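User: Sequence for DNA polymerase beta superfamily protein below. Tokens please.
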Amino acid sequence: MQPQDLVRHHTIYACVMGSRAFGLATDASDTDRRGVFLAPTPLFWRFEKPPTHVEGPGEERFSWELERFCELALRGNPNILECLHSPLVEHVDDTGRELLSLRGAFLSRQAYDTFTRYALGQRRKLDADVRTTGAPRWKHAMHLLRLLMSARDLLRTGELVIDVGEQREPLLAVKRGEVPWAEAEAWMVRLAAEAEEALRGSPLPPEPDHARVAGFLYRARRASARQAEPDHEVVQGVVGAGGVGQD
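Assistant: Structure tokens for DNA polymerase beta superfamily protein:
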């Protein structure tokens, strides 16, 4: 089975991400698609394991194998957590619906560290742009502000909402370069401070619910194994070769 066939035939959840999911799309925006596929369990019984992620088929599409997706979500990876909360779902089956029902199990106060660490990395890149060219990449500045808002509100409410709502126009003004860098920078500092303050009283648990997610993954793998047809030719070949029942 080719990697892209895993996406074509075994996707359990697919959504649109990027500016369209964030409520920041314009006429020039791409459509970024993300998904999760469940590789058939028998593929893991081979020396060569299924891929943990696949690019395509088509442009602007990226998918993760379920186990890898869950691992990253349990670590609080911002991109993965946001993928689970996209308002633009294009495909979901029964396993995908169970995955979505577990969204809360992946959320914890650890999101503060992962979101903040990611934001700091993006901020360093913006500062380097300013030093080199005198201005940041404004689109990246907009998305950093959006991420900081998302982190703050997640810590405040315990829920992750990725659509920016009424903040659309202020953020698009940043993207267009209409907001002075000093003002945008001050906005970032304020949001970071608000996220830190929200952490202290956050309703989120200290850690994600690993056991609940592990139980879901086990059930998904077991169901996949039960659906697989036994390969009678391989079994008979092994028996005929004297590999079974010989002293």
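The chain has twelve helices and five strands.
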